[in-house]
Amino acid sequence: MLTVENLHAGYGTSEVLVGVSLEVKAGTVVALIGANGAGKTTTMRAISGMIRPNRGRVLLDGRPVQDQDAAHIARLGLAHSPEGRKVFGPLTVEDNLLLGAYGRLPRFFGFRARAAADLKNIYALFPRLEERRLQTAGTLSGGEQQMLAIGRALMSKPKVMLLDEPSMGLAPIIVQEVFHTIRRLKETGITLLLVEQFAKSALEVADYAYVMDRGHIAIEGTPAHLREDERVLAAYLG
Amino acid sequence: MYTLLIVQLAVSGALMGMVYALIAYGFQLTFATSKSINFGQGELVMLSAFFSLTLIDSGLPYWLVVPGGMLFGAVLGLFVERAAVRLSLEQKGEGWILLTIILGLLGFSAAENIWGRDDRPFPTPISSDPLHFFGIDVTPLELSVAIGVLAVMGLVELFKRKTLLGKAFEAVSADRDAAQLMGISATRTIQLSYGLSGLVAALAGILVAPITTVGPTMASVLILKAFSVAVVAGLDSGFGIVLVGLFLGALESLTSFYLGSGWREAPGLVLLILALAVRPNGVFGKASIRKV
Amino acid sequence: MWKRLLLIRGAELAALALLAAIPLMVDNSYVLGLLTLLAIYGILLIGLDVTVGYLGQVNLAQAAFLGLGAYAAGLCVANFDFGMLAALAAALVVGLIFGTLLAFPALRLEGPQFALATLSFSALSATTLNEWEGLTLGAQGLQVSRPPFLGMALDAPEFFWLCLLLLALVWMAMRNLLSSQWGRAFEALRDSPIATDAMGVGTYRHKVAGFALASGLGGLAGGLYAFNFQYLQPQSFGWDLMVILLLGVVLGGRKSLWGALVGASLIALLPNLLSNRGLFQIFSAIGLLIALAAGGQGLLKKTTRPFQALAPVAAMGILMVGSLIVGNTEDWRKAIFALMLFSVVVGLPEGLMGFAARFLTRLFHIEPPRLPAPASLDTVLPKRTANGGALLELRGLERYFGGVKAVDGVSMTVQAGEIHGLIGPNGSGKSTAVNVISGLYVPTGGDMLLRGKLLPVGSLFKVARTGVARTFQNLQLFGELSALDNVMVALKDVYRSPLPLVLLGLARAEEKRARAAALALLELVGLGDQARSLAKDLTYGDQRFLEIARALARKPELLILDEPAAGLAHPDVNKLMDIIKRIHERGISIILIEHHMDVISELCGVVTVLDGGKIIAAGTAEQVKRDPKVIEAYLGVVDDPAGAAAPAQAG
Do A201 and C640 touch (CB under 8 A)? Predict the structure, then answer.
């Protein structure tokens, strides 16, 4: 569903990614793990068009998208829930969710009715969001904002979802809750590329995983395989 | 009797203040999406008024002239965005300040040569015979200004809150990158904001033209006060600008009564500089968080 | 070295001599008038360039300062019988005072609000000059007689020479100022106000000073203007003139004295150009050709966007066509200015002189001045004796953003002389904590003590002055300054000369000392041979090292390194560790935020681990690495399949 070939990208003169290749098959959860600064988030940003790759290809459902801008890629069916969550603080929870489905809803009227069923699904997944649906997103706690960010990305019914560091800055118990959610999403057959610094938790839910180190894929394999690999722990704790 | 005179002056001034608020509202629209404003907005007001006058002269009925003029303003707004704003926003610079000033100058010169340098009356079907409310005279013309301003601001706010496109507008203001990830094009949204801003500026021109008459310089003082209102209230203050507009309008009407009409412009300018000194983000504005 | 001096000073002298000689060769009062105007505009534009070029702020009040200066000089002569020098001094002072008064409120904000404030000030000053008829005679205009200069009545050529002399003096003073710490500070605060404050160079006070200076020069030019035309009207100093002045600065080239002079000549000559149709047609044809050449070149090399190449061509095309069909070009004056300005701002942002300077430097192979030998590190960064004891103490520090508790009750102590590691997963609050310590954010709660004294809160500048220096996770270098200048901006206890000495060019010795000291720090981080490169042109790794050198220029007691290894390639990480060790040897205490565990293990005696804004572990690197809570924080826990509601199990 999502194929990345030999991706080079960076900021200004410095190239952070030096040839990243990976594949996410339909209906699988793939984890991208590695120490901080390895280039995980940059990979995500280059895939979703937030930065333009210098070289390489990104294929979404067989279609090259590396030259498109982020808004266009999003409308082609890629939902990226970014690092730091980036919810729309001044807007209500429900508006945030509705905007997640921007690409497939009418622009002026009737969008609420069209989205009603999907909203209900999201609220079923995250009852806390329904309780706070009219609250502005900026007043939510970190964990709730993460739920909102995931819900917002799901609203677009994406072909592929990128989820970047869902555990960032959250208390351990909330992190567990987040991973529980990811597990439930997996049961629904979602296609997900998950970037996570918590290797163990990520390997727990993933079907396949890539370990990044200094801008390229250092190791890849099934979680069972990687869990045994000494190099994975070494990549984190030195 | 004297108190009544003061109240009368304050009320007429405040009604004019609504026009300042409307133009300032146009600044808010573009500032929200792009953190930029059109420094040549005054010329946009003036050109739209001239264009509407031409429509009237060509025999079009007033109720068609108003949307026609507004459409013209929207087109000008889109042109400003394309020619003066987009490039410098992409380069993350402040070139747009100079470039919008330059386009304003171009518009001014064009108006001088196309329509002439003289002030011309702007015919309107709305009467200027005063109505009396508790001893105070208000003309239907002045009332039409207030109603028009509130109506268009209300409509735009409704658009922003009730339509998905409007919410997208707010999303871009809140977080441009995240909005892009939702499939919302920031460039198109900024374009839209400039179009809307031109639209409300044109309406301001049409509403105020019967009172001020139409000429190349008709908006040069108007725009200064709109700037004052926008900054004093805060460029992200929402309806705070209406209050500030009313206040400034009343204040300058009283100033010109006490000090002479030449000093009419002074209070707005002093208020602006004072506001920057005391509350740099405006009376109703929000403080921003610095990021590194 | 000599070649450089000869060419640059020679060109200045030649230009001055040429201008001064013209009245001796040509006896034409019209030409003399133009030359006088050129000299006056020169002073005015040099002033305007300080704000528009060096400070990078759009200043729309320079025409107003010209007016205020002109009226001040004129009124002093009319009412108090001032001589020429005294009246000019008064004009200068009036410019300075009003400039300062405006700068205090206006410079608290950047961008559009600043431009708006200056615009309002112009309008206010125009209103006042118009309406205060008792003093200025309002729109009717004010007659000014040219007062004697030290008892002598000046004729027209003599007055021109006076203007030229003042221009030369202003030129020299500004050259001295702009090549001193002041000029560096101006440019630094334009590139990164945050880093400027964090380096202990007050952004705000430098901005105010720069703006006041610009206004003072505006006032001085106004005084000359008054005695040149001998008749003043408020509307002469309005919006039209302001646009012409901006045209002068932008067209001539920002951040350049020569640019100001070229711009001044152009705007002095412009009215002539417009009144002669044939001349104007030739001129616009040249403009179109330049736009075509520059645009075509840019497109071929793919250095410019299509819009940037095509828009000036379109504008110049309109100008060309217009010049052929319009009968009276005077009527379209403003449109012509607008089209020219538009083309230059879009297509040639560096201006004519910026363009020419690059070309001339290459043509004459002008080499930059030689650098002094680096100072000894012991004088630049004297060894501190680590006398132990608590250096920095945090007590229950908190910082919330809305509902997010980024730092949630952190208490820790940094002992003098240690390298204190601060680690934790992404978003655990490390960066927020140092942003609070260094004064970028005001804490929501808690206390911070440095050597037992409360640390100032919420001001980078004040914290920097207490002996705390920092680097930034997202680099905050002064991109347009050289590596050397980046360090020189931050140097502490070096610049002692008062402003008058700097203006007179008598601060060269300390400048040389500063250069030597900065070089020593550059060598410490291995950038000795990159001193001249612009910071923005350095490699990413070198930029990180430059930030460290710049922070060291503060002679800090405590150095905070915020993820210095982020994004570094492996050899650079080793180099970084080496640098940190060398800094530590000099007795400087360090807080090191880092993700690379190997870096932390090797360098840090003590490590504090944050997670979710709270401290979860503290101890030696080995201790925290084995701490189950830390492993969990880094690697995550194995999810309990029973559900999320179950409490987290450690390990």
Answer: no
Give the N- to C-terminal CA distance of chain C in Å, as an integer.
Answer: 68
> Residues A202-211: pLDDT tens digits?
888 999 999 9
Residues written for chain C: 651
Beta bridge partners, A11, equal A14
Supply the ipTM of this predicted assembly: 0.90
Collect all residues of chain C within an 8 Å Cβ-Cβ radius of residue A165: 426-427
Q: What is the DSSP letter of C382?
A: P
Give A124's pLDDT tier (boundaries 50, 70, 90): very high
**Closest alpha carbon within chain A to C614:** A171
Protein fold of B2-115+136-278: ABC transporter involved in vitamin B12 uptake, BtuC (1.10.3470)
Phi and psi at C89, nearest 5°, equal -60, -40
Q: What is the pLDDT of residues B121-137, one digit of tens each?
A: 998 888 888 888 888 88
Neighbours of chain C (3+ CB pairs under 8 A): A, B
According to DSSP, the residues that pair with A8 across neighbouring strands are: A18, A55
Provide the residue ranges of all domains of chain B, joining segments of one domain with +: 2-115+136-278
Q: Find where tokens 């050449």 sit.
A: C293
Q: Which residues pair with A81 in a beta bridge?
A: A163
Q: Which CATH architecture has domain A2-87+158-237?
A: 3-Layer(aba) Sandwich (3.40)
Do A177 and C644 make contact, defined as CB atoms within 8 angstroms?
yes
Residues in a beta bridge with A5:
A57
According to the CATH classification, is domain C378-635 in 3.40.50.300? Answer: yes
Chains in touch with A (3+ beta-carbon pairs under 8 Å) read B, C
Question: Choosing among B255, B276, B289, B290, which should be mutated to test the C contact, i.e. which has the most C CBs within 10 A?
Answer: B276
Q: Which of residues 77-96 of A touch C (CB under 8 A)?
A: 83-84, 89
CA dist C420 and C500 (Å) reads: 44
Query: Consecutive sets of 10 residues in chain C, 651 residues long: mean pLDDT of each?
Result: 75 90 87 93 95 88 95 91 92 95 78 83 88 82 86 87 95 92 91 90 89 95 94 88 89 88 89 81 88 84 82 92 84 88 86 78 72 84 78 93 85 93 84 92 93 91 93 90 94 87 87 92 92 87 93 94 80 89 92 84 91 89 85 60 36 31
